[in-house]
Each structure stands twice: as structure tokens, then as C-alpha cells.
Give the backbone structure.
Amino acid sequence: MSENCVVIQAALPLECEYLVGLLANVRQEIRGGWVFWRGEYEGVDLIVSKTRMGLSNAAAATAIAIERYQPRAIINQGTSGGHDPELNVFDIVLGVQTVNCGMVKTPSVAAGGGSNSLTWVEAFDMLPDDESDPEPIRQRYYPADAELLAAARALRANYTHGKVVEGTIASADCWNNELDRIAFLRQHYGSSVEEMEAASVAQIAQQYGVPMLAIRVVSNNITNGGAYNPDTGKACQDFVLQVAKRYLQA
């Protein structure tokens, strides 16, 4: 396999098993607790990475993939929960930017004063320019790679399961089911959807200088009653596979 390959990441089996099944000449590699499949699809070289859930798992899997395979680019993809009431199940969000919405500094509240996540408005910057600052308060957004985003945009009309939009993908080691909290995150971070991996992948990819794009399908959306559908995982994989192919053949 050449270094002209794309790593396609997924946290869960339902987000990557279909992709693996389409690869030819597949070889599985296990590094620590993370699984990678190397193979070919219609003349392009791909690596499918099962990162497992959460920011730390995704960061570790990303660093391993970059060091081991030296990919041309990374696409982090999978299912997500909707924050935007205009998004329906099966809609796809191209992450123009990603953000860690769980890296926050809470207000000072005395004992007995309770806790209210709707007052957590100060965000920590994970990659501050001044590392001597003990409290780098700033929302850090990771922009998508322009070429990867262009490849995804060019294929929007080919997706028939829903609409393909551009937005902000918010990540945290948290599954939000409080509608007021979701509305707060949408207001303060501009979040379209939430999940648990993309921002940490973007953080590691940025430090290595590797192009990265996050693509997420809406698998459920409690803001408008959209019930969970596991078939969204396959729909997203189909779309992402074509994005990777277009990018590598450009």
C-alpha cells in the first residue's frame, strides 16, 4: 500500500463493518486496543480504523494511524445526535469545523449552591498559542481541510437518503439528552450535531499537519422527535467511501 491513502475512522462496528466488507486484499492489524483494516476499493488505497468511542480513544487511534500509515488524509465519520431541529434522521453534516464542547471552566459556586450546566460559558483552548497561560479561555474550532470538503461538496447531489448540509460538529465525552442543554450548546457553539470523537481527531491531525474532515449522519434527533435508526451508519459509509475515492483520484 502506498502512502497515498485515506484513513476512514469509525467508533463502532455498525459504522465501519460495511466498509471493511467492500475492501479487497484486506489485512487486519491490531495496535493496542485499536483495530485497522488495510485494503483497496476500486483502485484506491484505504485504511478503515475502528477508534472505539470517546475523545481519548479517537485521539490515540489517530496518532497510531498517522505514525503507522502516514496517510494523505483522514475522514472521521459515523452516527450522531441532532442539535439542529431542521435536521432529520439520515441527513448528513459535513463538518466545516469541529469543536470540543466539553472542555469548560465552570463558574465559582459555594457549597450548597448547586450546579447548572447552562452557566458553563467559558471554554478552554486545547492548543493555546501561549502555553504558559494556566487558563487559556477560548473556544477552539478546528476547520475542515479545503480539498476534502470540496470533494464532499461535489457529491452532495448523489446522496439520496436525505440532505447534505454544512455545519459544526460538537464533540464531548457526554451523551446529552437535556433539551435545554442541547439548545445551550447550539447557541454557544453553533453545533449542528453532537458525537464523541471528531474534535480530538482534528486536534491530533492538526498537530501532525494531516488533512482531516469530519462527516456525520444524523442517527437520531430528540429536538424534533427523530427516532434512532441504525441503518444511518451504512448510508454514511456509502457516502464517505465516494468522498475518499474522489479525493484520492483528484
